[in-house]
Design goal:
Strands 2-1-7-6-5 form a five-stranded antiparallel beta sheet, sandwiched between helices. A two-stranded antiparallel ribbon has the order 3-4. Helix 3 crosses helix 5, helix 3 packs across helix 6 and helix 5 packs across helix 6. The chain has nine helices and seven strands, in the order H-H-E-E-E-H-H-H-H-E-H-H-E-E-E-H. The longest helix is centred in the N-terminal third of the chain and has 23 residues. About 35% of the residues lie in helices and about 15% in strands. It is an alpha+beta fold. The chain is globular.
């Protein structure tokens, strides 16, 4: 019917104005803001060779750090595989080709904190943890104190600093005993989701001149689980405990700043723990390990490398340094 009453025309006009407003709002709305990149907190560098599994004596300034985070309900689990269009595999063809030309058996894993992806390199049985197990001892200690609401004593703090920052064996043995040894560490590992780590059953092992806790066996993926317990809010460790442990790992003595820090620029944050252990009297079979958190320049990831059968200590360090540098570049 042509035409219409004034009232009807008014209603139609209002409807057209409302529709136009909706279109304008939809046109102006964006697709979302990108999360800001994590800022670098502490400079670290790739350093010189570490020492055999012996008490370190280097002196250095201790740094005090404090941070806060939002509490979570559990330790996040990594994605099973990379989805199409997500981060390029940093342990892909180039890394595999490099590792294949090196002596020994090398196992590695990387976890991207941005995407939740996990990548793995190499196949083989669990390897000796060497001094990397000291991180496990520290987390067990912190979790036990947290359950009872007891703060670390001055003595415990001193031992923890020596164990992580200097990789001091005597301090590690004292804390290994204090937390309850293998059974307590096994219990913590179960709660943290470690499936293939076996704490050493002997502290003084026959035919082995070093502390027996170094013969704890583990795999890279389990080491990522320990690291996630430090960088992600979870029910096992408080924010203060996580911050404390990371501060120690960021302040390792300069001659132990190698491994997963290889090729990482000084402005990035690196929190790491390394392990090195001669497996025979001839010193031609070395276990060299490195685990840690690397963050900066838009990257935020965890990395764990275990390597056995290295002809010399420095050879194993060089291998992990180069592999870490490749990962840093690929994670851009």
């Amino acid at each position: 019917m042509p035409g219409g009453t004034p009232a009807l025309l008014a209603v139609v006009g209002v409807g057209l104005l409302i529709a136009a407003g909706i279109v304008a709002v939809l046109t102006l709305r964006g697709s979302g803001a990108q999360q800001p990149a994590r800022s670098a907190a502490l400079a670290t560098e790739s350093g010189s060779s570490g020492e055999p599994l012996t008490t370190a004596s280097s002196a250095k300034a201790r740094s005090a750090k404090a941070s806060s985070a939002t509490a979570g309900s559990g330790i996040p689990r990594p994605a099973a595989s990379a989805a199409p269009g997500m981060q390029h595999d940093p342990l892909g063809a180039a890394a595999a080709s490099y590792v294949s030309a090196r002596a020994g058996v090398i196992l590695a894993a990387v976890y991207d904190l941005h995407t939740g992806q996990t990548w793995q390199l190499g196949q083989g049985q669990p390897q000796d943890a060497a001094s990397v197990v000291k991180l496990d001892v520290l987390e067990t200690l912190l979790a036990e104190r947290g359950r009872t609401g007891t703060e670390l004593s001055a003595s415990d703090q001193s031992l923890a600093e020596q164990m992580i920052e200097d990789s001091d064996n005597d301090a590690a043995t004292s804390l290994w005993d204090e937390v309850g040894g293998a059974s307590s560490i096994r219990s913590f590992n179960s709660a943290a989701g470690l499936a293939d780590t076996a704490p050493s059953s002997c502290l003084n092992c026959p035919g082995f001149p070093w502390p027996g806790w170094g013969l704890t066996t583990t795999v890279p993926r389990d080491q990522l689980a320990l690291l996630r317990a430090l960088v992600k809010p979870n029910p096992l460790l408080t924010d203060a405990e996580r911050s404390y442990a990371l501060a120690l790992m960021e302040n390792v003595t300069p001659d132990q700043r190698w491994g997963v820090s290889g090729g990482v620029p000084a402005q990035a944050t690196v929190a790491l723990k390394n392990g090195w252990l001669p497996l025979n009297d001839a010193d031609n079979d070395w276990q060299i390990n490195s685990v840690g958190w690397i963050s900066g320049s838009g990257r935020d990831y965890l990395m764990a490398v275990l390597s056995t059968g290295n002809p010399t200590e420095q050879y194993g360090i060089d291998t992990i340094n180069e592999l870490a540098a490749m990962v840093w570049q690929d994670m851009a």
